[in-house]
Amino acid sequence: MTRPTARTGGSSSLLAYLTSAILARTADEGARVALVMLATQRADSPALGGGLVAALMIPHVAAAPVAGVLADSVRQRRLFHASAVALYGAALVALAVLVGVSDDVVVVALAVAAGCVAPLLTGGLTSLLGELLSKEQLTRAFSADAVSYNLAGICGPAVAAALGTTMSAAVALAVLGAGAVTGGLLLFSLPLRPRAEKEALSRRLSPADLVRGAAELMRNPPLRSVTWGSSVGQMGVGALPVASVLLAAEYNASWVTGGLMTAFAAGALVGSLSYAWRPVGRRHPERVVVWGLLTTGIPLSLVPWTGQPVPTAGLFAVAGLCTGPLFSALLASRERYAPSAVRTQIFTLGAGLKSTFAAAGASAAGAFSGLGTAPLMWGAAACQVVAAALALILLVGRHAERTASEADAAGEAPRCSPSAPGTMDKGTP
Predict the structure, then answer these.
(1) How far apart are CA 87 and CA 264, in angstroms?
(2) Residue 410 — pLDDT band, cuts 50, 70, 90?
């Protein structure tokens, strides 16, 4: 077996990492709001703003396999990741200057280029934790990383809206971009050792390289369980903003439109912090994902019976509270069960799939919005229950596949099953 990569960091490295991750992810979340505001203010074209957001978001999924392969293969990882984050921030600053001034084709192309780097701000950064920290530190580190996502989801749109209305959308986008550049520079302080020459990519990428991570998501039981289960659950989460708009009209309370999603995000933040303090089920994080999906659906299913905005906000907060440990355990599962040769691919692909399923959920909720709020909320809750059942079914195959692996090993050289916790061969793709 290949010897696991030595952990080279400590608490100071984690602090630098989290600061960088929060700055980069806040820029990514806020840019979606700032771009629409900027196109409207400067070019009087909301359509251009929507096109820029699409150009920024689509590569999050489309470029994830290539970004993951490069990150798993490049020798100078610190230079690669730091440069990627800094370049993303520089692209946002450039967009702040060029939107409404240069040709639309130019700014859309620049947004696409920034979007191609974006998978390295989410799953790409998270994959570095396994290289920086010891096994004992990882569970709480992933919870802290989940907090960075929660904070970015809350602060990014808030910063963009606040600066965009009080000053200008161009200033908002430039500030967000400068924050990402700062985050990229901070990554240069991380003690990431260069890969050995033989581990670095020494040939051109082939189609087989691009699907190795996807293949692992299909044949590795714990990984396929948490990946596909969490992705299906994300369909329900993606429907919640649409349901929030309808609930605001139903309650005749304008604050509900953003208030419910803020309550959900705040609950997720508390859940992540709680799991960081007491990581229950840390030995089998894939089981935490299953339970997290199931418990998230329960409060969402009760929303149609409340009839009042404040109790509804409370139920949204409880649902978010359940997603905090779920997300932390999801990140921990990817780190534990992903072979080192495709680890970053697993993280970037997983993040891309969740974004895709969330977009599908939002689209479906919009299409069926005429049915009313109750069917939408029950549908969102049903997604969590179905996701939990799917994750459990995909996880049940672990024992059978481990038995088959052990049978193969009886007639071959000993090897580690990718589905056996604690025996992962980190060097086997």
Answers:
(1) 31
(2) very low
Q: Encode pLDDT of 219-241 as tens digits.
A: 888 888 999 999 999 889 888 88
Residue that wins the pLDDT comparison between 196 and 23: 23
CATH number of the domain residue 80 falls in: 1.20.1250.20
- The encoded tokens of residue 376 equal 């939408």
Query: Is the domain of 98 the same as that of 41?
Result: yes
Measured CA to CA in angstroms, residue 241 lies from 55, 193, 259, 374, 407 at distances of 21, 42, 10, 14, 49
For residue 217, the 8-state DSSP code is H
pTM, whole model, 2 decimals? 0.73
Locate tokens 């978001």: which residue? 57
Residue 201 has pLDDT above 80, yes or no: no
Same domain, 188 and 292: no
| Total tally of structural domains belonging to the chain | 2
Q: Are residues 166 and 265 in the same domain?
A: no
Closest CA to 352 of 49, 27, 83, 118: 118
Are 156 and 279 contained in the same domain?
no
Q: What is the DSSP string of 336-383?
A: HHS-GGGHHHHHHHHHHHHHHHHHHHHHHHHHTGGG-HHHHHHHHHHH
Q: What is the pLDDT of residue 209?
A: 63
Whether residues 270 and 311 share a domain: the answer is yes
Domain that holds residue 403: 211-420
Give the pLDDT band of residue 206 (cuts 50, 70, 90). low
Taking Cα atoms as reference points, which of 383, 349, 351 lies closest to residue 365? 383
Burial 247-272 (b: 16+ CB within 10 A, else e): bbebbebeebbbbbbbbbbbbbbbbb
Considering only CA atoms, which of 136, 180, 142 is closest in space to residue 159?
180
Q: Which of 196, 222, 237 is the last residue of a domain?
A: 196
Report yes or no on 428 lying in a domain.
no
